[in-house]
Amino acid sequence: MPRKISRAKAKSRGLTRYYTGKKCCRGHVAERNVCNKHCVICGLAHTKAYQQTPQGQRTRRAWEESPRGRESQRRSNQSPEARASKRRYNRSQKGREARRRFDQSPKGRESRFRQKHSVKGHEATRRRNNSPRGQDCQWRYKHSTKGIETARRYAQRYNEQPKNKRRVLEGVRRRLLERREAEYFENPHDDRARKLYFNLLYRREKDGR
Ligand SMILES: [Zn+2]
């Protein structure tokens, strides 16, 4: 219990509460407010009862949506107790189910999209992709039918771009030359192989490639 202090003394010191040790009309031995002499426990009970009424709920909602109310909620949500409580809830059966329901709702999808494309979300994705588990997951996708098909589609689109077409063509020509060369070296006495190889070689030199 707090130390005894008269109302007049508390008031002169600028305090908001005083304590006499006397019971209130409902039997609480508690501090009282300097401004109205009301017992604080009675005051809490009164506030709670008021918040249950329609008018009280409206007032509370207005407070929660005001800048100061938001700030107050933010501060209390960041307290260690609130964090621990949230963690407990998230790990409970009820919490898991609620989260699954939210994730599948339109609002949840939108929220996930926004998170994914935020700076924080990008950072999280990068971290996950670099983790052993993320790498393992990527490896499995790359070697799946779907992953191979996707890679093929991307490569095709890349190769069809004008700036890449020339390089692709050069690759085709280079590989053809390598094949002709290999055929000629395997059969040095085959006229046809020799002709094909040297024709290609001369043509390349003439084109300046
Ligand atoms: Zn009381």
Provide the fold topology.
Blueprint: H1 7-12, E1 17-18, E2 32-33, H2 40-52, H3 54-65, H4 67-77, H5 80-91, H6 93-104, H7 106-116, H8 119-130, H9 132-142, H10 145-159, H11 162-186, H12 191-207
Antiparallel strand pairs: 1-2
Helix pairs in contact: 2-3, 3-4, 6-7, 11-12
Bound molecules: zinc ion.
Residues 24, 26, 28, 39, 41-42 line the site of zinc ion.
Description:
The structure is a single chain. The chain has a two-stranded antiparallel sheet. It is mostly helical. Helix 2 (40-52) crosses helix 3 and helix 3 (54-65) packs across helix 4. It has 12 helices and 2 strands. The longest helix is centred in the C-terminal third of the chain and has 25 residues, at 162-186. It has helices spanning 7-12, 40-52, 54-65, 67-77, 80-91, 93-104, 106-116, 119-130, 132-142, 145-159, 162-186, 191-207; strands spanning 17-18, 32-33. The protein folds into 3 domains: 7-77, no CATH class; 80-143, no CATH class; 162-207, no CATH class. The model has no long low-confidence stretch (mean pLDDT 91). Bound molecules: zinc ion. Residues 24, 26, 28, 39, 41-42 line the site of zinc ion.
